[in-house]
Amino acid sequence: MEKYDITIIGSGPGGYMCAIRAAQLGFKVAIIERYSTLGGTCLNVGCIPSKAWLEASEHYHKLKHQFEDFGIDVKEANVDIVKMNQRVQDVVGEIINGVAYLMKKNKVTVYEGHGNIKDKNTIEIKGEDKTQTIETDKMVIATGSKPASLPNIEIDKKRIISSTEALALKEIPKHLMVVGGGVIGVEIGSVFARLGSKVSIVEYFDGLIYTMDKSVGHQLYRSLRKQDIEFYLEHKVTKAVAADDKVTLTAQNRKDDKEMQLEGDYCLMAIGRKPFTSGLGLANVGV
Asked: Whole-prediction pTM value?
């Protein structure tokens, strides 16, 4: 059985940076990742692809709405969403390959599989083809988070989607309904509004990015209104029902309890994220 000084479960920015630093300090280090690529949510299906989508959509928006002011006359501009998506994946691939290189450079052993803590010094790694066990003096839990949803709404990954599916869409939604006016909701909403989707954001509180400075949320609201995004602030979402190629969203006005419905082809659940600890074996070490 292989033994390490430090083992990190999870290869996102917290995990891989921890692994690199520990290796630089002279420890024998292993990192466990359940997916086939390193980098976690941020690099694979979060921060990096969302910024690449923002850049691409901004270029298109400027071409359609601002270039004429500079004397540049573009007769026709169309979005090839498949090619745009591929460019995003190329950006992601380049960065995650860089992380893999850093693991090799710093002599960090990478295990692909789901890490399950058996006791304070033993971790079982369940891969697709085999299960193996390693020993470790210390372990670091860096398993990150996954999309959260409302108790009465299931993310089916087809019509009711999370940010992961939204950043991999192969078509431009006709009407994207976004539940949640936080950073994830407004970012992805902005991307598709620029690409031509009708976007409706339904937010429980009376402003956007509510956990941040209110003046920033107010300026963001004004900016997004110019992109023709429609907002339903102070609305509590009570139901989202998917049927064939549409989703019906029901929400209640928190001021007067009046109910309203929206219908679109996609509903993005963007109410936040929750810790990803399923199957980790935390109870085995008293956590």
From this structure: 0.93
Instruction: Band the pLDDT of 77: cuts 50, 70, 90.
Output: confident
Structural domains in the chain, sorted by start = 1-143 (3.50.50.60), 147-272 (3.50.50.60)
Nearest to 271 by CA among 139, 145, 92, 116: 145
**Nearest in space to 57 (alpha carbons), one of 89, 81, 73, 75:** 81
Helices (runs of H) and strands (runs of E) counted in the chain? 7, 16
pLDDT tens digits, 114-139: 999 999 999 999 999 999 999 999 99
The rounded distance, in Å, linking the Cα atoms of 206 and 234 is 5
The terminus-to-terminus CA distance of the chain in angstroms comes to 25
d(CA 252, CA 204): 9
For 5-39, b/e burial (b = at least 16 CB within 10 A) is ebbbbbbbbbbbebbbebbeeeebbbbbbbeebbb
Task: Single out the residue of 208, 216, 206 nearest to residue 183, CA to CA.
Answer: 208
